Amino acid sequence: MNAPVPPVQSRAEDLVRRFAEVYGAEPDGVWRAPGRVNLIGEHTDYNNGFVLPFAIDRSALVAVRLRRPGSEPDFEREAEADVVRVASTYAPDGEELSRARFSIGGLEPGGVGGWAAYPAGVVYAMVHSSGAAVPGFDLLLDSTVPVGAGLSSSHAVEVAVAVALNELLELGLDRPRMARLTQYAENEFVGAPTGIMDQSASLMGQEGSALFLDCRSLDSETVPLPLARHGLEMLVIDTRVVHSHADGGYSARRSSCERGAAALGAASLREVPAGTSLDVLDDETRRRVRHVLGENERVLQVVRQLRADDVGGIGNLLTASHASLRDDFEVSCPELDQAVDAALAAGALGARMTGGGFGGSAIALIRRDDEERVSAAVLAAFAARGFREPALFTVLPADGAGRVRLTWSRGE
Ligand code: GAF
């Protein structure tokens, strides 16, 4: 449980060494982008609403080197200045590295599969939505964000690539523009119709705080989340039920919300005035809309409580969010419900699924002294139901993406 994550600095230094072995040269630098936990504000981002995620102390690292004519032995042989070579230390089938390559000029939506679609999508977005000239480059990826756990491992990769290329190519994109750019990569290239929350958390998170983001204006503020000072911890329960947002459930929810807004005469659910009757909607659409309207209110309430330093007091709102996602929005699953119920029964102050749902992770706000008891209760409940053993670990609010300062590497 809670296996320690190696420090970023030593991971980055290892990555530089591996990069030299793989590509025969040192990288231009190493960039880090964290995964995220959403504290509250679920399925509100694509409805122009409010979200309150935080960047976590688990991250993707990319070492990148722009390819320069004449600088590498095989560059001339490949004779393609726009070739991107990517490799990842996360290699499923027991191989040492998972490798892929693509040519920038040949990129088309859906044309690159597997994890390489994320760097490819960012390049595609830079070329097609920002008009940037992107040369070929070499990239090596390492990540401590568990894949498929609903903690935004794919956005962490995209954001790491975006901040690396933004700096190396001197594109001058600010954080909100990089959030839009990586959303474009997800929506247009990868084919997942996701909102703007995950990449914003990865880009704009701040240690010790959550990010209060208005997804309509992209105005953001940090809100203190001093867990340790209150003797609290955020426990992640990764159900290990894997779901992709490119599958139908997520886009079906999005369409329901759009239908609901249109039936209420609003451009988006954010524009629906408080107190509007939902009676004109059919039962299913009414429940979807009721979740989004209620969830926006819960975000505002949690922000008020955190600003009043009432961290323990937000627990009930987290649990209410879960009930709404389970009953009205219908994006939970038996494993997520079990995680929440078992954690609450063992003394958690609040618990909810986090992220898009249909699998992935739940979070539980717990007293530090209760970690073992809550974890044991969750494991026992999963075993009793015959569910796959979940992964349990605590997370802390961390800083958003940036360059890792290496003490000895070229270019520092
Ligand atoms: C996924 C999406 F990527 C986010 O944009 C958001 O919609 C979330 O599901 C649900 O709140 O993580």
TrEMBL record:
The entry's keywords: ATP-binding, Carbohydrate metabolism, Galactose metabolism, Kinase, Nucleotide-binding, Transferase
Protein name according to UniProt: Galactokinase
Extent of the signal sequence: none
Known EC number: 2.7.1.6
Occurrences of domain GHMP kinase C-terminal (ranges): 304-382
NCBIfam families: gal_kin
Organism: Arthrobacter jinronghuae
Domain Galactokinase N-terminal: 18-65
